[in-house]
Design brief:
250 residues, alpha/beta, Rossmann fold, S-adenosyl-L-methionine-dependent methyltransferases, 2 domains, seven-stranded mixed sheet, four-stranded antiparallel sheet, 11 strands, 27% helix, globular
Length: 250
């Protein structure tokens, strides 16, 4: 598994996440934020399998979902369709964003920004997203807070037995930190009649610093930056918060 290349892992990615639980946890955060900003048009800049984009569309918003992976975008189109108010685009989050008008809200969640190949790419992606956000609009970034992980041992986060393509699979996911970088570790064990067949994948991600992202945001015209450690708006603490959630208001 290479960073940003998840064409053959869309089913695994979707199966690993308890989407009803995750969206129920995050929905109140966006329900409070969007009306305050007057959100009508939303860009999910790294949409994955499209669950957030589809949720926002179900609220009556005009939504574009973009992702680097053609496989992810193909899955979005199959699962959620496409219309004048819901569109899907194959695009990396650091590419220029062509749109008829700026968006009211731009999101990059699910640790996607941390999968950029380097800090310069992170800065470029953040600038592109802020350029695509209208004055008075909002950009929301959510990444795993690498600094709360121990340096060295793998933290195994979840395991789940699922059926994929008619066959049983055992999925195991963990993360570990090595200095200022992290790694997502995925074990996919196909449970075949001839015996288990394991597949091992790993993806590197960056430790992103809230102060540096705040500096880039202010340099790009952001009026206000708020940092949280959870979608319940807990204060962000670098040493203990599992997530870094940044709300950037232009």
């Amino acid at each position: 598994m290479t960073n940003g290349d998840f064409d053959d892992l869309a089913d695994v990615y979707d199966a690993l996440i308890d989407w009803p639980k995750r969206l129920a946890n995050e929905e109140p955060f966006y329900r409070a934020l969007f009306p305050r900003v007057g959100v009508r048009r939303v860009l999910d800049a790294a949409c994955g399998t499209g669950r957030h984009a589809a949720m926002f569309h179900s609220w009556g918003h005009q939504v574009e979902g973009a992702d680097l992976s053609p496989g992810m975008i193909a899955r979005c189109r199959r699962q959620f369709g496409e219309s004048d108010s819901l569109g899907w685009v194959v695009r990396a989050f650091d590419e220029p964003i062509a749109a008829a008008a700026p968006f009211d809200a731009v999101l990059c969640v699910g640790n996607s920004l941390a999968l950029a190949p380097g800090q310069d790419a992170v800065a470029g992606a953040l600038r592109q997203m802020l350029r695509a956000t209208r004055a008075g609009g909002v950009c929301v970034i959510q990444v795993l807070n690498l600094w709360h992980l121990p340096d060295g041992p793998c933290v195994w986060q979840k395991h789940k037995q699922v059926t994929l393509g008619g066959a049983g699979h055992l999925l195991i996911k963990g993360v570990h930190r090595a200095g200022d970088c992290g790694y997502v570790e995925l074990i996919d064990v196909a449970l075949s009649p001839a015996g288990p067949v394991p597949r091992f994948d790993s993806a590197k991600f960056l430790g992103l610093d809230a102060a540096e992202l705040t500096r880039i945001a202010h340099d790009s015209g952001t009026r206000e930056v708020r940092c949280y450690g959870s979608f319940q708006s807990a204060p962000y603490d670098r040493t203990s918060s599992p997530d870094l959630i940044m709300v950037l208001e232009k």
